[in-house]
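Fold this sequence, please.
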Amino acid sequence: MGLISEFKEFIARGNVVDLAVGVIIGASFGKIVTSLVEQVVMPPIGLLLGGVDFSHLQWVLRPENLATEEIEEVAIQYGAFLNTVIQFLIVAFVIFLMVKAINKLKRAEAVAPSAPPTPSASEVLLAEIRDELKSRPRL
């Protein structure tokens, strides 16, 4: 089997296509969450805490030397880290809600009584033969 035909077979599998769709939707959802955190959630929190912009919070380890341009500022940017943690919590909460809804649907399907399956024609015929044999006197 050639490399091209193996690749076509691999791509044609349903789970690969599902994974690709999931990755694309996940990337788009990540952008939405980033925008939500940076532009909607954090500004009011910063306002409540005295007008602090979380994305610019940092601990400066080595300040920038304005006399020379060779040494740049070295800082731990914990504000950006806080934004990322909040983004993660939002994504985790949304995924939790989705899994919870899916589990609820699965439980509802499992609990819902389904109609008993109708016997096939051969099963009906076999049941008639069995009943006929039971009604005959034994020798």
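The CA atoms of residues 78 and 89 lie 16 Å apart. The chain has a mean pLDDT of 83.
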